[in-house]
């Protein structure tokens, strides 16, 4: 039986860089921000100052739908960090906007035995830190208003 997601007592917060700051702070506005090249139009992740496809420097963060599908996953059974009890899922999420773009995150609110490649998911955010050190961690949960295969 699945339990509803409970925020862990502990999480290692990221240390945003100039390139990744938008990704880690977009959740404040409920937006999953991913870099997009204005020259070739492709999204890419992780954030970088140059498009890896066309080498353009004309790149900027852009809001995505926050929807995607599980492309790969593992269920962690080992408690590596205090306050983050197993089992928990680490997954690669293929974004709906560009099937070549994948974000590594946790998938929550799903029984690990029901998790599968192709499962439609949507983002939500957990706020961590204080002041200028605040970040919004993007996490994913099963999509609530989609039909099977719609995001594939």
UniProtKB/TrEMBL annotation:
Source organism, top-level taxon = Bacteria
Among its keywords, does the record have DNA-binding? yes
Q: What is this protein called?
A: DNA-binding protein
Q: Which Pfam families match?
A: OB_ChsH2_C, zf-ChsH2
Question: Among its keywords, does the record have DNA-binding?
Answer: yes
Q: Which residues form the ChsH2 rubredoxin-like zinc ribbon domain?
A: 24-59
User: Gene3D superfamilies, from UniProt?
Assistant: 6.10.30.10
What keywords sit in the KW lines? DNA-binding
GO molecular function, one example? DNA binding
Task: Specify the ChsH2 C-terminal OB-fold domain's residue ranges.
Answer: 64-125
Ranges in coiled-coil conformation:
none
């Amino acid at each position: 039986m699945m339990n509803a997601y409970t925020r862990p007592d502990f999480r290692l917060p990221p240390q945003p860089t100039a390139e990744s700051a938008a990704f880690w702070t977009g959740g404040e506005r409920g937006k999953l921000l991913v870099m997009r090249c204005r020259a070739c139009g492709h999204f890419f992740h992780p954030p970088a100052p140059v498009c890896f496809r066309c080498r353009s420097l004309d790149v900027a963060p852009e809001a995505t739908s926050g929807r995607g599908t599980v492309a790969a996953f593992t269920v962690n059974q080992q408690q590596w960090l205090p306050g983050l009890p197993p089992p928990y899922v680490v997954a690669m999420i293929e974004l709906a906007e560009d099937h070549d773009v994948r974000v590594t995150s946790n998938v929550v609110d799903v029984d690990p035995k029901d998790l599968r490649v192709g499962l439609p998911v949507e983002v939500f955010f957990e706020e961590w830190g204080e002041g200028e050190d605040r970040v919004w961690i993007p996490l994913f949960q099963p999509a609530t208003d989609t039909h099977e295969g719609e995001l594939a």
